[in-house]
Amino acid sequence: MTGDPAISVVIPVWNEDGRTLQELRRRIVATLEPLGQPWEVVVVSDGSDGTTKQVLEGLASDDPRVRLVCLGRRRGQETALVVGLLAAKGELICTMDCDLENRPEDLPRIVAPLLQGYDLVLGYRRHRPGCPLTRRLLSRFFNSVMNLRWAVGIHDWGCGFNAGRREMFEVLRDRLSRWTDEPLKVGFIHQATRWTQVEVTPDIRRDGDSGYSWLMLCGRGITALIRGSTVVPGQRRRIRPPRAREEAEKRSSVVVATEGTP
Ligand SMILES: Nc1nc2c(ncn2[C@@H]2O[C@H](COP(=O)(O)OP(=O)(O)O)[C@@H](O)[C@H]2O)c(=O)[nH]1
Ligand SMILES: [Mg+2]
């Protein structure tokens, strides 16, 4: 690869099925190649089993656009994301899950708003095929309490399919020495000047199981709710709902054209 890529796709991986990872790579290539822009995939695996590691090493050695970062033991999805976001070289950076629940074919859709001047795009899943009712209810509850505490109107706090401009993630640089389990989204929404949400079309996980037990999911939710984010120092406030802000600004005759200006 000559020069830096325009688009980076950051993917945290923990113990994923080999065929799924092969298919993920094939579909990412098929989606990004037609865009005619240089791209890269940054895979961050921490403490994955031998088989997963072997498949990932194979993918990285077959294609120089796939870079693999391995951490010694399981550090969690958020830490893997921080490491991947900092390793990414693209101007536009997407994050996605590795289990094909996020469709690689949605990548152009999630990147598009960045080309129109947004600096953060949050994916959301309206329907979650194959997701058990109890988990859907838990996620609905989590979205409501997160919106009450941190920001109003975020459709899907748990969606891993997001994108942002490179500058958005520079704030993470001095945090690299600390492992984190905090929800990065809260910090990024605070940080963004223009953000928007894009619906993505999730698929059913075909192989393997979720890396999260119920206990872990609840733990993540509670951490997110209480801690919010220390990624952007001093940003501990709740973000105002875009519509309320728009109305307030209209009243003071300032025109606001975008959703999600915090
Ligand atoms: N690197 C890393 N990735 C993880 C970890 N836990 C989950 N992931 C990844 O995060 C994404 C979402 O995880 P998944 O188990 O599918 O969670 P679910 O979709 O919420 O059930 C997948 O790409 C996982 O491989 C972890 O501890 N480390
Ligand atoms: Mg999943």
Offer a quick outline of the entry.
This protein is α/β, with parallel strands linked by helices and 262 residues long.
Description:
The chain is globular. The N and C termini lie far apart (38 Å). It has nine helices and seven strands; from the N terminus they run E-H-E-H-E-H-E-H-E-H-E-H-H-E-H-H. Strands 3-2-1-4-6-5-7 form a seven-stranded mixed sheet, sandwiched between helices. It has 262 residues and is an alpha/beta fold. The protein has helices at residues 18-32, 50-62, 77-87, 107-115, 133-149, 166-170, 184-191, 214-227, 242-251, and strands spanning 7-13, 39-46, 66-71, 92-95, 120-125, 162-165, 195-200. It is 39% helix and 16% strand. Helix 2 links the parallel strand 2 and strand 3 (66-71). Helix 1 runs parallel beside helix 2. The structure holds guanosine-5'-diphosphate and magnesium ion. The site of magnesium ion has 5 residues, from loops.
